[in-house]
Amino acid sequence: MIIQSRRIWIAGQFIPAQLKVEEGKITAVFAYETEAWDQDYGNDRIVPGFIDLHTHGAYGFDTNDGQPEGLREWMRRIPEEGVTGILPTTVTQFPKVLQKAVANVADVVESGYEGAEILGIHFEGPYLDMKYKGAQPPEAIASSTVKEFQAYQEAARGLIRYITLAPEHDRDYALTKYCKATGVVVSMGHSSATYEEALMGIANGATSMTHVYNGMTPYHHRNPGLVGAAFRVRDIYGEIICDGCHSHVAALNTFFTAKGRDFGIMVSDSLRAKHCPPGGSYHLGGHEIEIRENGLAYLKGTETIAGSTLNMNKGLKILVEEAMVPFDTALNSCTVNPARCLRVDDRKGRLAAGYDADIVVLNDFYDVVQTYCRGRAML
Predict the structure, then answer these.
(1) What's the rounded Cα separation, in Å, for the pair 140 and 283?
(2) Which of 43, 222, 241, 359 is the most exposed place for a label (fewest CB within 10 A)?
(3) CB within 8 A of 32, min separation 6: which ones?
(4) What is the pTM (predicted TM-score) of this model?
(5) Distance of alpha carbon 158 from alpha carbon 105, whole angstroms
(6) What is the DSSP string of 188-257?
(7) Phi and psi, residue 137, nearest 5°
(8) Residue 126: cis peptide before it, omega within 30 degrees of 0
(9) Is residue 360 within 8 Å of residue 331, measured between CB atoms?
(10) 69, 59 contact by CB (below 8 A)
(11) So which residues are the catalytic ones?
(12) What is the pLDDT of residues 258-279, one digit of tens each?
């Protein structure tokens, strides 16, 4: 199959080109109209598929549910917003629930599914700080131990690729160092760490921060905190929720100005309510939540934000059109940067020969015209 457009994102710019796709891979790139084509997208923009490293669910399903058909439905439908790679993300809960959740992801990966590729599991909690827990269930927050995490990883059959923890509660940084040594990305979040404690977390193996600004010590010019560390340490990754509500668009601009084009990562932090009709009753980690008109989820009856219903293509639009982030920086944040963070950038995050044919076609309004997951048209 050969697809073409006058605007294909190659080497950090749009050029007229063709992509040849065979057996799930991009096998060649040609100049525009060089070869006979199967699909011409005219002036629509063709970009790499989006990768969401932090997403709890959608379509009524939550990772903690541990239900295979719900996970399969999520993967099959999520390409409608351009997502081609994903880390199903857990919420703090007791061990029995978490073991079932991660085992379910492993079962689905082994038995087969369609749509966005499951690149691993994001294990958010339970090793978090009580003050900055956000909507994470306080009754299940626990102290980190390597032995307990090994049991979770065994249940996941090695699929936990990314963990959020509070470094100040990781005694002697034992779990941080263990994860680093075994190829698990350590992300600091839901944490009361000081700037200095954040630096020690980084020194002991942490390479990312979870939803910067949210669930962490704020920036102050005399006490920079975790946010200050995210700004100052420019060569570690930082997730950020780009809905314009979790963080003001001016704060989004400040974040990406500090991080540059290579280390900011857009995430949705979406909940089961995403892509569901308005209203309805939803839960997160066993606690009731409500979706308000701004699209945010809150713990019911409180002002505690519990997550988002952000679509990734809309997040890209917000970054470019409202936060005034340069297009290449914004696009990198949901393509090559998360791929590099997960160390799958040898096959994900770019449109180039030898890469997976994870492709998104966007019109000028950032609507998804078509998504290809490993070469298969999904819409």
Answers:
(1) 15
(2) 222
(3) 4, 5, 6, 15, 16, 17, 18
(4) 0.95
(5) 11
(6) E-SB---HHHHHHHHHTT--EESSTTSSBPPP-SS--HHHHHHHH-TTSEEEEE-SSSSS-HHHHHHHHH
(7) -60, 115
(8) yes
(9) no
(10) no
(11) 269
(12) 999 999 999 999 999 888 876 6
